[in-house]
Amino acid sequence: MAEQLSQSELDYPFKLLEYFNGFRVSKVIFSACELGVFDLLLQSHKSLSAESVSQELQASQDGMERLLDALVGLDILDVEIIHGKALYSSTDVANLYLAKASPKSLHNMIAYQSQTIYPLWNHLADAVREGKNQNEKTSNMSSDQIFETLYRSEEEMLKFMQLMHATWVVETHDVVTAFDLSPFKTMVDVGGCTGGLARELAKAYPGSTVTVFDLPKVVEMAKKHFSVPDDSIAFQEGDFFTGELPEGDLYIVARIIHDWKEEKCLQLLHKLCEQCKPGGGVLIVEAMLNENRRGPVMTQLFSLNMLVQTEGKERTPSQYFQLLSSAGFKDLQVRRTGKCYDCILGIK
Protein backbone atom coordinates (compact mmCIF):
# COMPACT_ATOMS: atom_id res chain seq x y z
CA MET A 1 0.00 0.00 0.00
CA ALA A 2 1.04 3.58 -0.59
CA GLU A 3 2.27 5.51 2.43
CA GLN A 4 -0.54 7.31 4.21
CA LEU A 5 -0.04 11.06 4.29
CA SER A 6 -0.35 13.03 7.52
CA GLN A 7 -2.90 15.83 7.78
CA SER A 8 -0.12 18.42 7.64
CA GLU A 9 1.08 16.98 4.33
CA LEU A 10 -2.47 17.07 2.99
CA ASP A 11 -2.85 20.68 4.13
CA TYR A 12 0.40 21.68 2.43
CA PRO A 13 1.98 19.40 -0.24
CA PHE A 14 5.63 19.60 0.79
CA LYS A 15 6.71 16.51 -1.16
CA LEU A 16 4.84 17.45 -4.33
CA LEU A 17 6.36 20.92 -4.32
CA GLU A 18 9.80 19.38 -3.87
CA TYR A 19 9.13 17.13 -6.87
CA PHE A 20 7.83 20.03 -8.97
CA ASN A 21 11.10 21.85 -8.43
CA GLY A 22 13.30 18.84 -9.10
CA PHE A 23 14.24 20.08 -12.57
CA ARG A 24 15.53 23.31 -11.06
CA VAL A 25 17.83 21.36 -8.74
CA SER A 26 19.21 19.43 -11.70
CA LYS A 27 19.89 22.58 -13.68
CA VAL A 28 21.66 24.22 -10.72
CA ILE A 29 24.14 21.34 -10.63
CA PHE A 30 24.37 21.12 -14.43
CA SER A 31 25.07 24.85 -14.73
CA ALA A 32 27.65 24.90 -11.94
CA CYS A 33 29.54 22.08 -13.70
CA GLU A 34 29.32 23.83 -17.05
CA LEU A 35 30.61 27.10 -15.60
CA GLY A 36 33.50 25.38 -13.80
CA VAL A 37 32.50 26.27 -10.23
CA PHE A 38 33.63 23.00 -8.64
CA ASP A 39 36.94 22.91 -10.49
CA LEU A 40 37.76 26.46 -9.41
CA LEU A 41 36.96 25.84 -5.74
CA LEU A 42 38.98 22.61 -5.72
CA GLN A 43 42.02 24.30 -7.29
CA SER A 44 41.86 27.39 -5.10
CA HIS A 45 42.48 25.48 -1.83
CA LYS A 46 40.70 28.29 0.01
CA SER A 47 37.26 29.83 0.37
CA LEU A 48 36.28 32.37 -2.27
CA SER A 49 33.78 35.21 -2.41
CA ALA A 50 31.07 35.34 -5.08
CA GLU A 51 32.93 38.32 -6.53
CA SER A 52 36.15 36.30 -6.91
CA VAL A 53 34.34 33.30 -8.40
CA SER A 54 32.43 35.46 -10.87
CA GLN A 55 35.60 37.25 -11.97
CA GLU A 56 37.51 34.00 -12.47
CA LEU A 57 34.65 32.38 -14.41
CA GLN A 58 33.62 35.52 -16.31
CA ALA A 59 30.09 35.58 -14.94
CA SER A 60 27.91 38.21 -13.34
CA GLN A 61 28.46 38.62 -9.61
CA ASP A 62 24.73 38.71 -8.85
CA GLY A 63 24.00 35.56 -10.84
CA MET A 64 26.97 33.69 -9.40
CA GLU A 65 26.05 34.63 -5.83
CA ARG A 66 22.55 33.21 -6.33
CA LEU A 67 23.95 30.02 -7.87
CA LEU A 68 26.46 29.56 -5.03
CA ASP A 69 23.76 30.11 -2.41
CA ALA A 70 21.56 27.49 -4.07
CA LEU A 71 24.46 25.03 -4.01
CA VAL A 72 24.94 25.74 -0.30
CA GLY A 73 21.23 25.09 0.25
CA LEU A 74 21.65 21.73 -1.50
CA ASP A 75 24.61 20.86 0.81
CA ILE A 76 26.94 20.68 -2.20
CA LEU A 77 28.96 23.76 -1.17
CA ASP A 78 29.70 25.30 2.21
CA VAL A 79 29.65 28.97 3.21
CA GLU A 80 31.13 30.99 6.05
CA ILE A 81 30.33 34.62 6.84
CA ILE A 82 33.47 36.52 7.87
CA HIS A 83 33.22 40.26 8.63
CA GLY A 84 29.89 40.33 6.82
CA LYS A 85 31.30 38.72 3.67
CA ALA A 86 30.20 35.31 2.37
CA LEU A 87 33.08 32.97 1.51
CA TYR A 88 32.27 29.74 -0.35
CA SER A 89 34.15 26.45 -0.29
CA SER A 90 33.72 22.96 -1.70
CA THR A 91 32.47 19.98 0.27
CA ASP A 92 34.13 16.56 0.09
CA VAL A 93 31.34 15.20 -2.11
CA ALA A 94 31.74 18.07 -4.60
CA ASN A 95 35.51 17.59 -4.74
CA LEU A 96 35.14 13.83 -5.21
CA TYR A 97 32.31 13.64 -7.74
CA LEU A 98 31.82 17.05 -9.38
CA ALA A 99 35.30 18.40 -10.06
CA LYS A 100 36.80 17.24 -13.37
CA ALA A 101 40.19 16.47 -11.85
CA SER A 102 38.87 13.81 -9.46
CA PRO A 103 39.37 10.15 -10.49
CA LYS A 104 35.74 9.59 -9.41
CA SER A 105 34.38 12.59 -11.28
CA LEU A 106 30.83 12.37 -12.64
CA HIS A 107 31.31 15.57 -14.62
CA ASN A 108 30.95 13.86 -18.01
CA MET A 109 27.78 12.11 -16.89
CA ILE A 110 26.34 15.45 -15.80
CA ALA A 111 27.30 17.13 -19.08
CA TYR A 112 25.53 14.39 -21.06
CA GLN A 113 22.44 14.62 -18.87
CA SER A 114 22.31 18.38 -19.41
CA GLN A 115 23.08 18.53 -23.12
CA THR A 116 21.40 15.36 -24.44
CA ILE A 117 18.99 13.82 -21.93
CA TYR A 118 17.39 17.03 -20.65
CA PRO A 119 16.16 18.16 -24.11
CA LEU A 120 14.69 14.69 -24.73
CA TRP A 121 12.72 14.85 -21.49
CA ASN A 122 11.02 18.03 -22.69
CA HIS A 123 9.14 15.64 -24.99
CA LEU A 124 8.23 13.00 -22.38
CA ALA A 125 4.48 13.53 -22.81
CA ASP A 126 4.89 13.00 -26.57
CA ALA A 127 6.88 9.81 -25.92
CA VAL A 128 4.11 8.48 -23.66
CA ARG A 129 1.42 9.34 -26.24
CA GLU A 130 3.34 7.90 -29.18
CA GLY A 131 5.13 5.01 -27.47
CA LYS A 132 8.41 5.80 -29.16
CA ASN A 133 11.62 7.74 -28.58
CA GLN A 134 11.92 11.43 -29.35
CA ASN A 135 15.19 11.51 -31.29
CA GLU A 136 13.43 13.02 -34.32
CA LYS A 137 12.54 16.12 -32.32
CA THR A 138 15.95 16.69 -30.75
CA SER A 139 18.44 15.42 -33.36
CA ASN A 140 16.42 15.04 -36.59
CA MET A 141 17.20 11.31 -36.62
CA SER A 142 14.67 8.54 -37.18
CA SER A 143 13.27 6.90 -34.04
CA ASP A 144 14.58 3.50 -35.17
CA GLN A 145 18.16 4.76 -35.62
CA ILE A 146 19.13 4.55 -31.97
CA PHE A 147 22.87 4.11 -32.15
CA GLU A 148 23.14 6.01 -35.41
CA THR A 149 21.77 8.90 -33.35
CA LEU A 150 24.14 8.35 -30.43
CA TYR A 151 27.11 7.97 -32.80
CA ARG A 152 26.08 10.57 -35.40
CA SER A 153 29.39 12.41 -35.05
CA GLU A 154 32.72 11.81 -33.34
CA GLU A 155 31.82 14.50 -30.81
CA GLU A 156 28.47 12.89 -29.94
CA MET A 157 30.03 9.43 -29.76
CA LEU A 158 32.69 10.68 -27.35
CA LYS A 159 30.02 12.31 -25.16
CA PHE A 160 28.09 9.04 -24.96
CA MET A 161 31.20 7.00 -24.24
CA GLN A 162 32.19 9.44 -21.50
CA LEU A 163 28.73 8.97 -19.97
CA MET A 164 29.12 5.20 -19.99
CA HIS A 165 32.62 5.44 -18.53
CA ALA A 166 31.49 7.78 -15.75
CA THR A 167 28.69 5.38 -14.78
CA TRP A 168 31.16 2.64 -13.91
CA VAL A 169 33.17 5.00 -11.69
CA VAL A 170 30.71 4.41 -8.84
CA GLU A 171 29.10 1.08 -9.78
CA THR A 172 31.77 -1.40 -10.87
CA HIS A 173 33.01 -3.00 -7.63
CA ASP A 174 29.55 -4.02 -6.44
CA VAL A 175 28.65 -5.33 -9.90
CA VAL A 176 31.75 -7.47 -10.51
CA THR A 177 31.66 -8.97 -7.00
CA ALA A 178 27.90 -9.64 -6.86
CA PHE A 179 28.75 -13.24 -7.83
CA ASP A 180 32.01 -15.17 -7.56
CA LEU A 181 33.06 -15.16 -11.21
CA SER A 182 36.50 -16.72 -10.68
CA PRO A 183 35.50 -20.08 -12.26
CA PHE A 184 35.10 -18.30 -15.62
CA LYS A 185 38.59 -18.00 -17.10
CA THR A 186 37.65 -16.24 -20.35
CA MET A 187 35.28 -13.27 -20.05
CA VAL A 188 33.85 -11.19 -22.89
CA ASP A 189 32.25 -7.82 -22.18
CA VAL A 190 29.73 -7.59 -25.02
CA GLY A 191 29.25 -3.95 -26.01
CA GLY A 192 31.82 -3.03 -23.37
CA CYS A 193 32.43 0.47 -24.77
CA THR A 194 35.41 2.13 -23.05
CA GLY A 195 36.46 -0.92 -21.01
CA GLY A 196 35.58 0.68 -17.67
CA LEU A 197 33.69 -2.37 -16.40
CA ALA A 198 36.10 -4.83 -18.03
CA ARG A 199 39.11 -3.35 -16.23
CA GLU A 200 37.38 -3.79 -12.88
CA LEU A 201 36.61 -7.40 -13.82
CA ALA A 202 40.27 -7.98 -14.67
CA LYS A 203 41.30 -6.44 -11.36
CA ALA A 204 38.85 -8.55 -9.35
CA TYR A 205 39.68 -11.79 -11.23
CA PRO A 206 43.39 -11.68 -12.17
CA GLY A 207 43.27 -15.36 -13.16
CA SER A 208 40.86 -14.59 -16.01
CA THR A 209 41.29 -12.85 -19.34
CA VAL A 210 38.81 -10.10 -20.23
CA THR A 211 37.99 -8.91 -23.75
CA VAL A 212 35.84 -5.94 -24.74
CA PHE A 213 33.79 -6.66 -27.87
CA ASP A 214 32.29 -3.62 -29.61
CA LEU A 215 31.86 -1.87 -32.95
CA PRO A 216 35.10 -0.92 -34.78
CA LYS A 217 34.52 2.82 -34.38
CA VAL A 218 33.82 2.39 -30.66
CA VAL A 219 36.98 0.33 -30.17
CA GLU A 220 38.97 2.98 -32.05
CA MET A 221 37.60 5.74 -29.83
CA ALA A 222 38.15 3.67 -26.68
CA LYS A 223 41.81 3.15 -27.53
CA LYS A 224 42.23 6.80 -28.46
CA HIS A 225 40.55 8.42 -25.45
CA PHE A 226 40.30 5.83 -22.64
CA SER A 227 43.45 3.72 -22.86
CA VAL A 228 45.54 3.14 -19.75
CA PRO A 229 49.22 2.16 -19.37
CA ASP A 230 49.84 -1.60 -19.21
CA ASP A 231 46.18 -2.30 -19.93
CA SER A 232 44.96 -5.61 -18.49
CA ILE A 233 42.16 -6.07 -21.05
CA ALA A 234 41.99 -6.70 -24.79
CA PHE A 235 39.67 -5.18 -27.40
CA GLN A 236 38.07 -6.98 -30.33
CA GLU A 237 36.02 -5.36 -33.09
CA GLY A 238 32.67 -6.66 -34.28
CA ASP A 239 28.88 -6.35 -34.27
CA PHE A 240 27.16 -8.50 -31.65
CA PHE A 241 23.96 -8.73 -33.71
CA THR A 242 25.44 -9.55 -37.11
CA GLY A 243 29.05 -10.60 -36.53
CA GLU A 244 30.85 -13.54 -34.97
CA LEU A 245 31.34 -13.40 -31.21
CA PRO A 246 34.67 -14.11 -29.51
CA GLU A 247 34.92 -17.38 -27.61
CA GLY A 248 34.32 -17.04 -23.89
CA ASP A 249 33.29 -18.86 -20.73
CA LEU A 250 31.26 -15.88 -19.54
CA TYR A 251 29.55 -13.17 -21.57
CA ILE A 252 28.86 -9.93 -19.72
CA VAL A 253 25.93 -7.94 -21.11
CA ALA A 254 25.93 -4.70 -19.13
CA ARG A 255 23.36 -2.01 -19.91
CA ILE A 256 22.70 -3.61 -23.30
CA ILE A 257 19.46 -5.59 -22.96
CA HIS A 258 17.51 -2.54 -21.78
CA ASP A 259 18.14 -0.81 -25.13
CA TRP A 260 15.99 -3.18 -27.17
CA LYS A 261 12.55 -4.71 -27.63
CA GLU A 262 12.03 -8.36 -26.66
CA GLU A 263 12.69 -9.84 -30.10
CA LYS A 264 16.11 -8.19 -30.36
CA CYS A 265 16.97 -9.14 -26.77
CA LEU A 266 16.12 -12.77 -27.53
CA GLN A 267 18.12 -12.64 -30.77
CA LEU A 268 21.23 -11.60 -28.85
CA LEU A 269 20.70 -13.97 -25.90
CA HIS A 270 20.10 -16.95 -28.22
CA LYS A 271 23.34 -16.09 -29.99
CA LEU A 272 25.25 -15.91 -26.70
CA CYS A 273 23.80 -19.24 -25.54
CA GLU A 274 24.77 -20.94 -28.80
CA GLN A 275 28.31 -19.59 -28.45
CA CYS A 276 28.59 -20.72 -24.82
CA LYS A 277 30.14 -24.04 -23.95
CA PRO A 278 28.27 -26.21 -21.39
CA GLY A 279 28.96 -24.70 -17.98
CA GLY A 280 29.54 -21.27 -19.48
CA GLY A 281 27.22 -18.42 -18.75
CA VAL A 282 25.93 -14.92 -19.20
CA LEU A 283 25.91 -12.08 -16.67
CA ILE A 284 23.24 -9.43 -17.22
CA VAL A 285 23.87 -6.08 -15.50
CA GLU A 286 20.90 -3.72 -15.48
CA ALA A 287 18.84 -1.43 -13.27
CA MET A 288 16.01 -3.76 -12.23
CA LEU A 289 12.48 -2.92 -11.22
CA ASN A 290 10.85 -4.47 -8.16
CA GLU A 291 8.32 -7.19 -8.90
CA ASN A 292 5.59 -5.26 -7.06
CA ARG A 293 6.05 -2.18 -9.32
CA ARG A 294 6.75 0.04 -6.29
CA GLY A 295 10.29 0.98 -7.21
CA PRO A 296 13.09 1.64 -7.15
CA VAL A 297 12.11 5.15 -8.22
CA MET A 298 15.48 5.67 -9.91
CA THR A 299 14.91 2.59 -12.07
CA GLN A 300 11.38 3.73 -12.93
CA LEU A 301 12.87 7.03 -14.09
CA PHE A 302 15.53 5.14 -16.05
CA SER A 303 12.75 3.20 -17.78
CA LEU A 304 11.10 6.44 -18.86
CA ASN A 305 14.48 7.56 -20.14
CA MET A 306 14.68 4.42 -22.28
CA LEU A 307 11.30 5.43 -23.69
CA VAL A 308 12.42 8.92 -24.73
CA GLN A 309 15.83 7.81 -26.06
CA THR A 310 15.77 4.16 -27.20
CA GLU A 311 13.33 1.36 -28.05
CA GLY A 312 13.91 -0.54 -24.80
CA LYS A 313 12.87 -0.44 -21.14
CA GLU A 314 13.93 -1.52 -17.68
CA ARG A 315 12.56 -4.86 -16.48
CA THR A 316 11.88 -6.90 -13.36
CA PRO A 317 14.08 -9.91 -12.50
CA SER A 318 11.26 -12.28 -13.53
CA GLN A 319 11.10 -10.63 -16.96
CA TYR A 320 14.86 -11.14 -17.37
CA PHE A 321 14.47 -14.72 -16.17
CA GLN A 322 11.88 -15.29 -18.90
CA LEU A 323 14.20 -13.88 -21.57
CA LEU A 324 17.15 -15.95 -20.38
CA SER A 325 15.11 -19.16 -20.06
CA SER A 326 13.70 -18.70 -23.56
CA ALA A 327 17.26 -18.29 -24.85
CA GLY A 328 18.37 -21.57 -23.23
CA PHE A 329 20.05 -20.47 -19.98
CA LYS A 330 19.35 -22.25 -16.68
CA ASP A 331 20.26 -22.01 -12.98
CA LEU A 332 19.25 -18.35 -12.97
CA GLN A 333 20.23 -16.25 -9.95
CA VAL A 334 19.71 -12.57 -9.17
CA ARG A 335 21.82 -10.38 -6.89
CA ARG A 336 20.71 -6.94 -5.76
CA THR A 337 23.67 -4.64 -5.10
CA GLY A 338 21.79 -1.88 -3.28
CA LYS A 339 23.06 0.58 -5.89
CA CYS A 340 21.64 1.49 -9.31
CA TYR A 341 22.65 -1.72 -11.12
CA ASP A 342 21.89 -5.32 -10.24
CA CYS A 343 23.04 -8.64 -11.70
CA ILE A 344 21.54 -11.88 -13.04
CA LEU A 345 23.71 -14.90 -13.76
CA GLY A 346 22.56 -17.65 -16.10
CA ILE A 347 24.37 -20.91 -16.90
CA LYS A 348 24.13 -23.00 -20.06
Automatic annotation (TrEMBL):
Coiled coil: none annotated. Transmembrane segments: none annotated. Residues 17-99 form the O-methyltransferase dimerisation domain. PROSITE patterns: SAM_OMT_II (PS51683). It holds the Pfam family Dimerisation. Keywords: Melatonin biosynthesis, Methyltransferase, S-adenosyl-L-methionine, Transferase. It is an enzyme of class 2 (transferase). PANTHER family: O-METHYLTRANSFERASE CICE, PUTATIVE (AFU_ORTHOLOGUE AFUA_4G14580)-RELATED. Catalyzes the transfer of a methyl group onto N-acetylserotonin, producing melatonin (N-acetyl-5-methoxytryptamine). GO terms for biological process: methylation. Gene3D superfamilies: Vaccinia Virus protein VP39, Winged helix-like DNA-binding domain superfamily/Winged helix DNA-binding domain. This is Acetylserotonin O-methyltransferase. GO terms for molecular function: methyltransferase activity. It comes from Polyodon spathula. Pathway: Aromatic compound metabolism; melatonin biosynthesis; melatonin from serotonin: step 1/2. Its EC number is 2.1.1.4. InterPro entries: COMT-like, COMT_C, COMT_dimerisation, SAM-dependent_MTases_sf, WH-like_DNA-bd_sf, WH_DNA-bd_sf. It comes from the Eukaryota. Residues 121-330 form the O-methyltransferase C-terminal domain.
